[in-house]
Structures are given as C-alpha cells and as structure tokens.
Design brief:
The protein is of the alpha+beta class. 17% of the residues lie in helices and 45% in strands. The protein is built from four helices and 19 strands. The strands form five sheets. The protein has a five-stranded antiparallel β-sheet. A five-stranded antiparallel β-sheet has the order 13-12-17-16-15, with no helix packed on it. A three-stranded antiparallel β-sheet has the order 1-2-19, with helices on one face. It is rod-shaped, with a radius of gyration of 29 Å.
C-alpha cells in the first residue's frame, strides 16, 4: 500500500475526538476521591491508562501524526532504537482497495502547532500482548476509573477529628440508663465544655431521638450540631494489583 494511500486510509479510520487527541492518553487522568485533608475538600489521585509494551523492530521507524479533525499532519522519523521497549495503547486499522494496515497509538504531541495523536505501523514493532481496539481500550479506561473511584468512595471510615464550632466551646454530654435493665439511653449535658480550637478523635456517632452525639473518649460525648469535622481517617483502599499499578500520584 502506498504511503499516500496509507495517510488517506488512516485519516478515514481514526477521526479522533478532541477529548482523546487533546488530552493525551500518556498523561495522567485525574480521579477525585475523598482523602484525609478536610471534611469539605476532596483530595485528588491520578491514574495512567493501560498499555502494552512492545519491542521496536528496526531503528527510527516512521511515526504518523493525526490532528483532532482526523487529518494526517505529517509523517516523521522517530528516535526509537532497535530493541527499544515502547508503550502501545490501542490499535486502529486503515483499509482501502489495496489492503489494510494496523496502526498503534503511542503518544500525544504538538506537531506544527496542532495537538496530534501519534501512531506507529504495527509491522515496525512486536507487542508483548494483544493491543486492544480503540473502543475496547476506551471502555477499559472508563472501567478502571470507575473501579478506583468506587474503591475510594467505599473505604471504611476509621475515625473523624472534630472541633467545636463556636468560640464558646461545646458542652460535654454523658450517656446513662435509668436502670441496669433499661435499653433506652439518655444523654445529659454537663457544666464542662470542650474549648474552642481543641481537636478530638471520634470513631462512633450515636443517634438519640433527633440528635446525634460524637463519642470522644473517657465516657464523653459532644452533640454533633455543636462541632465541625476537621478531617477524616480512612482505612486503606482495597484494590487489585493491576489497578494499584495504575495509580501514579496520591
């Protein structure tokens, strides 16, 4: 198949979206999840997309740049060396009446002032495993992001750190039963207060009627309406090894 026909066929086959070509799959994809920062802010982790390692068959194979409109910007010599390991993300097949050629997506770069997806011809590399189609790769990326997000959202809460809202502090309550056999628990305020600015860990919130009380140790409780959550401590995230390996930043 002639190079000119290759260009035309690849452009027809690819037609990359602005989001895919512009964002660059080799860059980290942000995922938002709760961390231990504060009660009102969520931390951010970044994940990378799955890829397949491949060995370069010959030095300086051609790379093909496709812009966001699906048009070929140019072909260019790579700086890959023979035997070098590179990462492939997904495949696209270009067809015409002369045959078909498979291209592998390797990167996102600015070429001639345009954000482009960069491809290498499949015959120039030897993949270590099957390279997924663009559609399958995209589905997997969405699945990975959701799995990691769900894992963060479903972490067990170990404890929260609370502090009085008011500069006047927060009253201390204690719990009691009217008799040893009684099941109902009552809460009564004491004259003692927790000073403004003081912070206490609480691993238990008890609902009593319309009110809720946070246990801060030593048989002491604070009414949740009088306190604010300063931070939260979660149990470790439960993820499979392959998903853990996708996380590049906490």
């Amino acid at each position: 198949m002639k190079t000119k026909n290759l260009f035309t066929s690849l452009a027809a086959a690819v037609m990359l979206s602005a989001g895919l070509a512009g964002a660059g799959v080799s860059a980290a994809e942000p995922v938002h999840a709760a961390t231990t920062q504060t009660s009102s802010k969520k931390g951010t982790i970044s994940i990378k997309r799955r890829s397949v390692s491949a060995i370069v068959n010959n030095a300086n194979p051609k790379l093909y740049a496709v812009n966001q409109d699906g048009k070929i910007v140019k072909s260019m010599d790579s700086n890959y060396t023979k035997g070098q390991t590179i990462q492939l993300y997904f495949s696209n097949e270009a067809k015409n009446d002369q045959g078909s050629v498979t291209f592998y997506y390797v990167d996102s770069q600015t070429v001639d002032g345009q954000q482009c997806a960069i491809y290498v011809v499949s015959t120039d590399v030897t993949p270590s495993a099957t390279v997924p189609s663009q559609a399958d790769w995209s589905k997997q990326a969405q699945s990975d992001q959701k799995a990691i997000q769900d894992a963060y959202n479903n972490r067990a809460l170990k404890y929260i750190v609370v502090s009085p809202k008011s500069k006047k502090g927060a009253k201390i309550y204690y719990a009691y039963k009217k008799s040893a056999k009684a099941k109902k628990v009552y809460f009564k305020a004491t004259k003692k207060k927790i000073k403004y600015g003081k912070k206490y860990k609480s691993s238990m919130i008890i609902k009593n009627g319309k009110s809720r009380y946070a246990y801060i140790g030593k048989k002491r409780y604070l009414k949740t309406s009088t306190i604010k959550v300063v931070s939260a401590k979660y149990a470790p995230v439960q993820l499979s090894d392959d998903l853990k390996n996708l996380i590049v930043q906490n």
